[in-house]
Fold this protein.
Amino acid sequence: MKTAIITGATSGIGEACAKRLASEGWRLIITGRREDKLKKLVNELKEKFYTETLPLVFDVRDEHQTITYLSNLPETWKDIDLLINNAGLASGLEPLQDGDTEDWNKMIDTNIKGLLYVSKQIMPLMIERRKGHIINLGSIAGKEVYPNGVVYCATKHAVDAISKGMRLDLVPYGIKVSQICPGAVETEFSVVRFHGDKNKADNVYKGFTPLNGDDIADVIAYIVNLPDHVCINDIVVMPKAQASAYVTHKV
C-alpha cells in the first residue's frame, strides 16, 4: 500500500486530494493547523474508504514544529511515496506601496519557507529508498504577474524555481518532481486573501465557472497513476473562461 503526505489538508485542494487518494487505497499523512478540521477529515476517510490516516497538527511556517513532527514519524509511516506540498495562501490584494508587511511575511513564510521546511524533512526518506514523487502546488501567478498581487506572484514564481531545482537535485535518485499551476479555484483561497470578507471573496468567482478542489485532485490522480518512467514536470490548468492570470470572461 502506498503512502502520501499532504500539507494543508484541512480544506480546498488538500482536502480534495486526500479524499481522492483515499478512494484509490492510499495511506495518508495529513497536516494542517486546524485540529478540528483534521479530525473531521480523518473520520470521514475512515467511514467512507477505511483509510489508515496519520493526522499531524502543526503550522508549516514554524520550522521547529515542522522538524519536530516530521523527523519523528513512526517507523511504519516513513516509507513515503508521495509528498503533495499544498499548504499555501494569498493575503491582501493591494499595490506594493500600499501592502501590509504582515501579509507579505505570511505569504513568504507559508508559500516558500513552509514548502522548503517540509521538503527538507521528507526528501531524505525518499532518497534513501531511491523512489518517490513530490508534487508542488504552484499557480498561474507563478507564470505571470497580475496587478496588486506582487508578493503573492513572487512567492509562486519561487515555487516554480524551487520545483525546477528540486528536479535537478533529485533526478539521480529516481524521484519525480511535478508542479501543478491552477488558475481560479473556488476554495477558501479568496476568503483568506480578503481576511474573511466573504462578499469580496464571492465576487471573485461571479460570472463564470471556476475550477474546484476536485478538478485539481483529478489532475494529481492522473499524474501519480502514470507509469514509473513517466514524469509530468509542469501543468497549467485553468477554467475555460480564464485566458490568463488577469483575463477572465465573465457574463
